[in-house]
Batch of 4 targets.
Target 1
Amino acid sequence: MSSRYGEFPGARPRRLRTTPAMRRMVAETRLSPAELILPMFVREGISAPQEISSMPGVVQHTRDSLRKAAAEAAAAGVGGIMLFGVPEVKDAVGSQGTEPDGILQLGIRDVVSEVGDALVVMSDLCLDEYTDHGHCGVLDAEGRVDNDATLERYAEMAQVQADAGVHVVGPSGMMDGQVGVVRDALDEIGKQDVAILAYTAKYASAFYGPFREAVNSSLKGDRKTYQQDPANLREALRELALDLEEGADMVMVKPALPYLDVLRRVADEVNVPVAAYQISGEYAMVEAAAANGWIDRDRAIMETLTSIRRAGANMILTYWATEAAQQL
Ligand code: PBG
């Protein structure tokens, strides 16, 4: 072909973009409801759902509204839910995280009985929602997060969550050895079938901001001594190797959008399912910009989800899971 400006190669890629039907047919990445996972918060001691101001549209649930939202997710075909508990009382060791009647365990029981056959019920396995200092583990005499003492707590948490009937636990505290300890603890009580979704590459991110409100976090300071430095990719691959060796059934990269390169590397590396967590700050950015009329909300949501899939995620944790599933 030629124009008055000279020759160009004959190919015309635009032919495949001419109509909606053509674009749909040649799309390389598709989303389906089954690969979406909805994170949900259940809070003790409230009589009505509480809005989370930095996450418009997301609430802290009562036990009742949690059941309903889980049923709604299941009806939309969502693949799974990830539960977080918000207790009334916190203490230094996060006692409510290991109480059989702690709010998360009650929430697990409720949703397993409600929707347990229709979707996968998962729970966050971490202490930060339950500790008065807000860290993901227990502290030593100097106030540092004590890795090995924390592992003992995680083992107990895994067991009470499994007893409550959860299908998958998600250790998210970034303690060394957490996957192996959780696996042993589950096996010890005959819960071989409870799977582990390992938070493998979890970065110390500013984008967790709104989540802190969602779980009434009491954290002062940061989590930089246990979560990863945003600068590092090789370190994520080291964490990955360790998690797989310790028995992770699925692995996760978190946050999602600022770490698509990490996600791609992890996806290329493994032969287990890979999840990505589109976190609270990613949600809040889109909602805030859309509320200002600066971006098209629905298109932005689908574009972010498609990008995360394209980068190699099999599953995506997203606060838009039910809505996106309904649209698909
Ligand atoms: C820790 C945990 C966090 C999130 C999920 N699990 C908070 C943190 O590490 O500070 C963040 C999720 C989000 O921001 O949406 N239990």
Target 2
Amino acid sequence: MDEEVYKKYKLAGSIAAKARDYGANLVKAGKTLLEVAEKVEKKIEELGGKPAFPVNISINDVAAHFTPRKKDSTKFQPGDVVKIDVGVHIDGYIADTATTVEVETDRYGELINASREALENAIKAIKAGIRLRELGKIISETIKKRGYRAIDNLSGHNLQRYLLHAGLSIPNVPEFSLTKLDADEVIAVEPFATDGAGHVISGKESNIYRLVKFPPKSRDKTRIYAGKLRKLYSTLPFAERWLEGKFTNPHNLLEDLVRKGYVISYSQLIEKGRGMVSQHEHTVIVTEEGCEVIT
Ligand code: CO
């Protein structure tokens, strides 16, 4: 890997790790999700990075894809199982990492350990030449041993410059694939464990958006707005609340761009059996002998 690129990944990784741990420590009963999300995003900027996506704070049976809106007053409750998923980029080079905390109670410690251990075991096995199927097997078997299920339709992914999901899926179950990992590949591994069905379905909106297409030249403002979004976030996901102060009516603007197909709005991913979900994630650089965890 190019030395400059490597340095950027390492810096993104160290900032993401600090922001993740900082966020996990902020999660307390009575605090709002919004406060935690905004503080973590501010921390990322203070440390010299940029958020690669809005901080995801997904609670209980919401496995992933939720960030609070500016007006959201939802507070953490005792017993909540909270996933904090953080992305940081330096010049487009992304590190993606997540952890899970339970608020005040300790009923889901074993569930949380299951995804943590699955991630550890996968990392021990990663090296150039390993088949993705093998990683999926390690992850799902580790989780199964603790009495839980891996979520079969959520997966890790490879990362490329300004691309959070660059095409390769790192499965959490041994699905049929002959694909092998190559040295220098940057991948995010993210096992999800649940006491539910082991599958997620789409739920309500996540408040997370992404520019997916660029409008043709026209007289209306659409192209100007899309251009501004592209300049701000490139092809990376963003939150509606990030647009406040930058656009006059962000909500209407986004509705319009989504309707026209230039922006997509992500849905929350909900556990199908309404089970509790825990998640752990690290970004690693694959090497010939193993891998380097950068988060
Ligand atoms: Co990820």
Target 3
Amino acid sequence: MNGNVIVGQSGGPTAVINSSLAGVFKTAKDRGANKVYGMCHGIKGLLDRKFIDLSDKLDSTMAIDLLKRTPSSYLGSCRYKLPEIKDSKETYDKIFQILNELEIKYFFYIGGNDSMDTIKKLSDYAIVSGSDIKFMGVPKTIDNDLAITDHTPGYGSAAKFIAATMKEIIRDGLVYDYPSVTVVEIMGRNAGWLTAAAALAKSDDCEGVDLIYLPEKPFDIDRFMVRVKDLAAKGKSLVIAVSEGIKVSDGRYVFELDNHVEMIDAFGHKQMSGTAKFLSNKIASELGLKSRAIELSTLQRCAAHMSSRTDITEAYNVGGAAVKAAFEGETGKVVVLKRVSDDPYMCITETGDVHKIANVEKKVPLEWITDDDYVTDELVHYIRPLIQAELSPIMIDGLPRHLKV
Ligand code: F6P
């Protein structure tokens, strides 16, 4: 191959997003790339000419091994929406000028559905401007809401953390001889895939969470309170999983029913927080039950010590597959995972058109959500293979070691 490579990370991080970075870097190098640059803070940083030569950092097998085990986005991230091409040709001219100065021929962007908007616009612009740079998306998001792909790298590790944490919270709830209610808030925005992973806690050593609320169905607060009251009346301590994105029937998010500070990102997403606190306060004040709110918040996306090895491996593979496809001439595509077998679980990589993935949110099918506020076995069966196996952290002085930024 001729020319250099550049790679960036964008959107919310995951525990395994750096495994995809490792996959891009190693595969590009093995296939003869000269320089592999990393954008600092994604396309936003590139516009400010902020990038590094990754060969200086990833100069040993140990560094690459540590990178795979390091959570959050090693290169830094951004939530930056490129303008429409027709509205700001100069932005695109600037980006392509920087890419040409660096002799870039292959551009990789590791991100979710918002970040794929960047690949869509840049690959479209390359066509109209006659550039031969290849643009390829590498999927990631804990939300698992990307279209076409069976699932997204990052989801399996977050799901594993959530299910394991739920088992521990359920155990903690059994400790006293009177009922209490713990409401656990889980990320995922408008898709309930992550919250559904709470169902995996149920096993022969754990009775599982009591109620699960996904954003795909309107949330009925009165009905919720009745369900909590009835279950608690049996003398049982309850653990309830709620998605950060549940909404009441008039379209307001539950967290908006309480005092909150409105923060909106470049893609128009509200920062979601406070759903569990609101519900827990309501339970305590109206039902007189001891109640706690736990917001898993960023813990669920940076818990590299609880990663799924299946997830780490797939994250690495999608990075490698993106390089292979781009080096073979593909552009304007995103690598997707296709499940070819459930037992034994097996996924292969393919590429999908970025226009069908950018800005599209894939939701949990309604038939996988039950009327008694839980999820079906089919959904559990879909998630379970994704949390399998572990990759031990490299422990130094009693703590997991990460690659220093
Ligand atoms: O998109 C991934 C995600 O972790 C969502 O689940 C969450 O709502 C959002 O990012 C939070 O974004 P930020 O870290 O930018 O506040």
Target 4
Amino acid sequence: MASRRAADELIASGAVRVNGQVPPASGLLVDPEKDRVTVNGQAVKPVTRHRYIVLNKPLGVITTAKDESSRTTVLDVVGDEGKGGHRLFPVGRLDADTSGLLLLTDDGDLAYRLTHPAYKVAKEYIAFVTGNPNTADVETLRKGVKLDDGITAPAEVEVLRITPGSRESGIAEVRVVIREGRHRQVRRMLHAVGHKVQSLQRVGFGPLKLGRLKAGGWRVLGEAEIAALRRAVDQMGSPKAAPRAPRK
Ligand code: URA
């Protein structure tokens, strides 16, 4: 209901109560599911009824809401506390052997847009690969690589670190940002230019960053992050150009 600064001023003025009490000046963590927040006696409602959490998916965990063969899923990792009483599902997927940022929500409309190729949401990965990619490899990756399901769209590619050695030896750290979501795309792109991926982590999804979240850790998105996600898929002009989730 207010900018961060205006909210600070409202709190300082004594207009804000949490469960009927004036919050301490040192701050108070509010649980929107449980706590009642008022401003001048009026209840403040969260902007959305949905829940959005980011998980740092550990290796070996399956990106699905339910696994037929009872392997550990991302929902097992976040547990009841992470679900917070919502029927969360993963937005897009990461391979079992990929770790990193995965958004979970029960907001079907936003999830649909975030994963629809028309919105070209950026997905940022850090890969460790065998061999030091040369300039030609990087150029090919940037412009588009021929894979068995077609040429990839332009990507951002940066070699962050190389180890002494040749194009065949050593290990390099590579940052790749793609705006598509084909099956094992980053691994296949790097493999196509001669560099096998040894480890892969997603560190960014649209405006979201993994940050310091440890493997298996999760956090609830703040209002500003949810608004940024909405903006990321809200830039298309005509309704025709902007696909919406089909209504059930
Ligand atoms: N690309 C891959 O190869 N694997 C993933 O999990 C995500 C992108």
